[in-house]
Specification:
Elements (H helix, E strand, L loop, with lengths): L6 H10 L7 H20 L10 E5 L5 E3 H15 L4 E6 L16 E9 L10 E9 L22 E7 L3 E6 L5 E6 L4 E6 L10 E3 L10 H11 L10 E2 L5 H11 L2 E4 L12 H14 L3 E3 L19 E4 L1 H11 L1
Parallel strand pairs: 3-4, 10-11, 10-12
Antiparallel strand pairs: 1-2, 4-5, 5-6, 6-7, 7-8, 8-9, 12-14, 13-14
Helix pairs in contact: 1-2, 2-3, 4-7
The protein binds 6-O-phosphono-alpha-D-fructofuranose.
Length: 330
């Protein structure tokens, strides 16, 4: 029988393992969980609420913005910004940094992708919210600027994601392991369902868009062909699993083992995925679960950021699988 532990209770328990904690991070995480409940409410009824379809605008990525992207972005900014705990925010949907509605008083920075994989919303495929939290680099919140958003992933104090799927789950880490919570709509709470998630050392799934075959570099093609060869001793051939929704693909591989790759391609020479609010938070979670995350050569969380929306190739998942993939890249 699962102990009925809410995510708020779990945040508090985690705080107790940090004697120096002031409780501020706990408050931030509670704000994020609350925002997740607001987004969930709309996502799960998207087909009914006439909020499907293009909002007719495009985001900084030049991608069509669906109404739910816009909604999720606004909800997160307002639901979290109103308490003044964050001095600054950065979102996939906003070109520049966001100063929360309340004046800059908090000592933290929130970077997030409000609704990743949103192109899947209309066909009822899982989508997700990804978040990453840093401390300000200086002491004066009113002086916070974009440089506070450009810290290495290794400086994150917390990271997580919400997956809006067959059930809605929130998964997070503060550096003390990875913990998953399943939303119970009958009580409106995220309840602990996956304590101390660890990723298998090696998996049997690989996730890559094989439709980009013509754009892949030969080293990536060689690795994928290696995975397709028959060799029981090394658990091959692997099975391919690619949903086209990063959070959904990552979450499956986190629980079952495997590797997700969005490599450098001819169309995306720096990869497609974003370092600050996609690769870094998932890398923090993956490493805390015992996995590995690199750009094919360098640890994701060691990359020195230069731009808020910069892209990176991403090899993430079971340690043995990522190491094997890297061996083809050298
Ligand atoms: P492709 C969704 O648009 C997304 O940002 C990620 O969620 C997903 O992993 C990736 O792009 C899919 O990209 O080029 O395979 O369609």
């Amino acid at each position: 029988m699962n102990k009925l532990i809410t995510i708020e209770r779990h945040f508090l328990e985690q705080q107790k393992s940090h004697p120096e904690a002031t409780g501020e991070l706990t408050d931030l995480l509670n704000d994020v969980a609350f925002a997740a409940k607001l987004v969930r409410r709309e996502v799960v009824r998207a087909g009914l609420a006439d909020i499907l379809g293009m909002a007719g605008t495009t985001n900084v990525q030049g991608e069509e913005v669906k109404k739910l992207d816009l909604f999720a972005n606004e909800k997160i900014i307002n639901a979290i910004g109103q308490h003044g705990r964050f001095a600054l925010m950065g979102s996939e949907e906003n070109e520049g940094t966001i100063i929360p509605p309340k004046n800059q008083t908090g000592r933290y920075v929130l970077l997030f992708d409000p609704l990743d994989g949103s192109s899947n919303i209309d066909v009822n495929v899982s989508v997700g919210t990804i978040f990453s939290i840093y401390r300000l680099t200086g002491d004066d919140p009113s002086q916070a600027d974009v440089n506070d958003c450009l810290q290495k992933g290794s400086e994150q104090v917390a990271a997580g994601y919400v997956i809006y799927g067959s059930s809605v789950m929130m998964v997070y880490t503060t550096g003390n392991g990875v913990h998953g919570f399943t939303y119970d709509p009958t009580i409106g709470e995220f309840l602990l369902s996956h304590e101390n998630i660890t990723i298998p050392e090696q998996g049997k799934y690989y996730s890559i868009n094989e439709g980009s075959w013509q754009q892949l570099h030969s080293s990536t093609i060689d690795y994928i062909n290696y995975l397709k060869e028959e060799d029981k001793a090394t658990g091959r051939p692997y099975s391919t699993r690619y949903i086209g929704s990063l959070v959904a693909d990552f979450h499956r591989n986190l629980l079952t083992g495997g590797i997700f790759i969005y490599p450098a391609t001819r169309k995306h020479p720096d990869g497609k995925l974003r370092l600050m609010y996609e690769a870094n938070p998932l890398a923090f979670i993956c490493e805390q679960a015992g996995g590995r995350a690199t750009n094919g050569k360098t640890r994701i969380m060691d990359i020195d950021p230069t731009e808020l929306h910069q892209r990176t190739p991403l090899y993430i998942g079971s340690t043995q699988d990522v190491l094997k993939a890297e061996s083809f890249e050298h």
